[in-house]
Amino acid sequence: MNEVYIHESSYVDDNVTIGKGTKIWHFCHVQSGAVIGENCSLGQNVNVGCNVRIGNGVRIQNNVSIYEGVEIEDHVFCGPSCVFTNVTTPRAHFPVHGHYAKTRICEGASLGANCTVVCGHTVGKSALIAAGAVVTKDVEPFALMAGVPARRIGWVCECGKRLDDSLACSCGRHYQLKDGHLTPVF
């Protein structure tokens, strides 16, 4: 699986970099300046905006638009129809012309179906955003976020399982709270 697969119904503009093993399925559009890493999967009807950076091993499900200003690190999961924004105060009559708020989705994070990530925020490493949640502030690493607006309702392991009060996962990983932040114990 060393080559790139691009379905014939998809459009890839000039000046795009796509890593080996990546698959781009039906009705996608990858715009100029985008960089997509190795072994990624873009489901049906995915739009990757100009100059967007997507890491390795990223899974983007159907009907997701990733707008300029969004950076997605390695091994992120974007659920079906999750939403990104890139302008904090959009107005049709007053376009921003390339001045976009930066949004960063850190390594291993998962974004549930139909969740929204309001621009200008960072979703931390291995965080899990519940389906339908609306992220309106930065999310800590390993946080389990749900609701509108999203709030932390617990912690998750790097493997994705919800942690109980012991902060030990059945996969063998252990965590500790330091100054209110969850960190792995090595």
Characteristic terms for this protein:
about 190 residues, mainly beta, nine-stranded mixed sheet, 24 strands, about 0% helix, globular
How widely separated are the two ends? 34 Å
- Structural Rg: 17 Å
Q: From N to C, what is the helix and strand string?
A: EEEEEEEEEEEEEEEEEEEEEEEE
Beta-strand level of the residues, as a percent range? 25-35%
Report the helical percentage.
under 10%
Number of strands: 24
Task: Write a structural description.
The model has no long low-confidence stretch (mean pLDDT 96). The strands form five sheets. A nine-stranded mixed β-sheet has the order 1-4-7-10-13-16-19-21-22, with no helix packed on it. The protein has a six-stranded parallel β-sheet with strand order 3-6-9-12-15-18, with no helix packed on it. A four-stranded parallel β-sheet has the order 2-5-8-11, with no helix packed on it. It is globular, with a radius of gyration of 17 Å. The protein has no helices and 24 strands. By secondary structure, it is mainly β. The protein has strands at residues 5-6, 11-12, 17-18, 23-24, 29-30, 35-36, 41-42, 47-48, 53-54, 59-60, 65-66, 70-72, 77-78, 83-84, 103-105, 110-111, 116-117, 122-123, 128-129, 134-135, 143-146, 151-155, 174-178, 181-185.
